[in-house]
Design goal:
The relative contact order is 0.16. The radius of gyration is 18 Å and the shape is globular. By secondary structure, the protein is of the alpha/beta class. Helix 4 runs antiparallel to helix 7. 48% of the residues lie in helices and 17% in strands. An eight-stranded mixed sheet has the order 1-2-4-3-5-6-7-8, sandwiched between helices. The protein has eleven helices and eight strands.
């Protein structure tokens, strides 16, 4: 099947980029383990008024993997976003929407390149109050590669990865995933590159947080920001804690705060209309603000 989008060589890696629609540029940054197709439904809703940009980080989707031993970093991802926008000829400031772990990259880019950012939305973002790196980064990276080799040696059925995606995004988008999405989900999650990319980025989580904290000390956030949190319907201890934590995140950024309930972590997949409304509302605010 012909892949959507285009491929660009960025930092020596073949990088998959998908662009849809027309209008002001909107760049989605996917969660840990996320791929371009997770945003298909929300992109379809937004593409008549936004230029929606998606790209696969190394090892995800259809992009090349990082070389063995290379540890993901905040600086590298900032450079990658620069290169994606440059390859597309995007000079207008973009609206960044970072989901989960990708909120780290969104914040870092907004702090590092304020002239290229119109605003930033954290979609149930990852805010770590006490970042811990219990083992040296090179060790955790090595363990991630070792675990990936072990998973590959198990020769699990291709359906195992597909099932994992279904569990993470359950109940999925309204009407379910399309036939095309199901084909690409099987292709990506049934391959051997994906587990390695997931484990390598997860292993770097502490490093990424520490690097971002360092950036916060030297680069103030000058662009408008919105923190969106996904909360369960019932007022459980998890609900109360996550709401409190995300409010702290908003205060740290000087951002507006918008709790969503009922909603799950992958509400961008499960409630694409709601996610699109959030983006449109924030875009309208940015337009008025000038």
């Amino acid at each position: 099947m012909q892949p959507p989008g285009t491929f660009h060589t960025i930092a020596g890696l073949r990088t998959h980029v998908v662009v849809d629609g027309e209008g002001p540029p909107l760049l989605f940054l996917a969660a840990l383990g996320g791929n371009w197709f997770d945003f298909d439904q929300v992109t379809e809703i937004l593409s008549d008024r936004w230029t929606v940009i998606r790209y696969d980080r190394p090892g995800y989707g259809l992009s090349d993997s990082l070389p063995a031993g290379q540890i993901p970093s905040i600086a590298d991802e900032v450079d990658r976003i620069d290169a994606v926008l440059d390859a597309l000829g995007i000079t207008e400031p973009v609206l960044l929407a970072g989901h989960s772990l990708a909120s780290l990259y969104a914040e870092a880019y907004a702090r590092s390149r304020p002239d290229r950012v119109a605003g930033v939305i954290m979609l149930d973002g990852s805010y770590v109050m006490l970042p811990l790196q219990l083992v040296p980064p090179s060790w955790s990276n090595g363990l991630a590669h070792l675990a990936a080799r072990f998973i590959k040696a198990l020769r699990l059925p291709r359906s195992a990865g597909v099932r994992g995606h279904a569990i993470a995004t359950r109940p999925g988008p309204p009407g379910g995933f399309t036939k095309t999405q199901r084909l690409w989900i099987a292709e990506v999650y049934g391959g051997s590159r994906y587990p390695r990319a997931l484990l390598v980025e997860q292993a770097a989580f502490g490093v990424l947080n520490s690097q971002l904290i360092g950036l916060r000390r030297t680069h103030p956030l000058s662009t408008p920001a919105l923190v969106v949190s996904a909360l369960p319907a019932r007022r459980t201890p998890v609900h109360v804690f996550w709401n409190w934590k995300q409010q702290r995140f908003a205060r740290l950024l000087g951002a507006e705060y918008r709790p969503l309930s009922p909603a799950r972590h992958f509400f961008v997949v499960q409630q694409p209309t709601l996610a699109a409304e959030l983006i449109d509302d924030f875009g309208a605010y940015l337009a008025v603000r000038g």
